[in-house]
Design a protein that fits this description.
- There is one protein chain.
- The chain is α+β, with helices and mostly antiparallel strands.
- It has 2 domains: 84 residues, Aldehyde Ferredoxin Oxidoreductase,  A, domain 1 (4-Layer Sandwich); 228 residues, Aldehyde Ferredoxin Oxidoreductase Protein, subunit A, domain 2 (Orthogonal Bundle).
- It is built from 16 helices and 10 strands.
- The longest helix is centred in the C-terminal third of the chain and has 16 residues.
- The radius of gyration is 20 Å and the shape is globular.
- It comes from marine sediment metagenome.
- This is Aldehyde ferredoxin oxidoreductase N-terminal domain-containing protein.
- GO terms for molecular function: 4 iron, 4 sulfur cluster binding; electron transfer activity; metal ion binding; oxidoreductase activity, acting on the aldehyde or oxo group of donors, iron-sulfur protein as acceptor.
- Keywords: 4Fe-4S, Iron, Iron-sulfur, Metal-binding.
- Pfam families: AFOR_C, AFOR_N.
Length: 350
Amino acid sequence: DKPVYIFIQDGQVEIKNAQHLWGMKTLECQNAICEELGDKNVKVALIGPAGENLVSFACVLNDLDAAAGRTGMGAVMGSKNLKAIACRGHQRLSLANPEAVSAIGRWIRDNTPVANKGMQDFGTARVVKILNDAGGLPTRNFQLGSIDGVDDITGQAMTNTILVKRRSCFACPVQCKREVKVDEPYTVDPRYGGPEYETIAALGSNCGITDLKAIAKGHEMVNAYGIDSISCGMAISFAMECFENGLLTLEDTGGIDLRFGNATAMLQMIELIARREGLGALLAKGVAQAAKEIGRGAEEFALHIKGQELPMHEPRFKQGLGVGYVVSSTGADHCHNIHDSAYTSLTPLL
């Protein structure tokens, strides 16, 4: 009945007190755990205040910028008073068939050079311009497939303006992950990484926003609070469409002018959702439940399948996605079926 975290080291498991960590954002908490354990190499999967507050789309953060993002796993941990899982190992990993693993790695390296080069140079944000020009970039709560000013939020724009470092997941040669830094008008800490394509579209184009610095700040906030950026962006864009159609008023929003394109409003809503305050308390339930409570036709603006908000892939553009979403046990899950032609056009090794 009290907050705890789990520490796993070389096969030994301890349950440790986390009362002093409860309420901390992810960076603060990770630093505190590493200091407490006396080892900066400890790896931590943890929740932020959103998970503690049982936001329905709270996520689990790993190393501050990698998320188990969908389906509300952060809320599950929060409901169990589990703040974090910290791991440290000194043993080698054994492979049943190391030759096969090496062969798979070589096949990926040799057969996806074009895709990997673009990912290395511009990260997953390399597709922003491509999708926009093809009419497949979710915009204004999926009302449109392209946005004016898209050049301001592309991977190229990020590289030319706020990017400070590239890095990779473990042992990956591509280095598609970004680190960004902003000093004004917002302060963005590069330790939270940088926005991926999904976040750029969810907090950017789908909210009618083309301010890359604001999107980077939103990215930092969702990682600090521990929120799935996809569902969070969809909840905000849903509220924006409701606001513009008179289903939500300034009284409902607490005076926030929740129109598409208002970057300040987007950032305010992230914090309200994480803290479950004001309109954020309603949106924290997800768009399906929020639409039911608003009523008056709000369901038309609540884009979800099986209760999970749509990710930033346009099913009317990538037509196979619709079928995948319907049969997926988690609903609107773009990882359930393969839809990226750079990889699917190749003959799979397996």
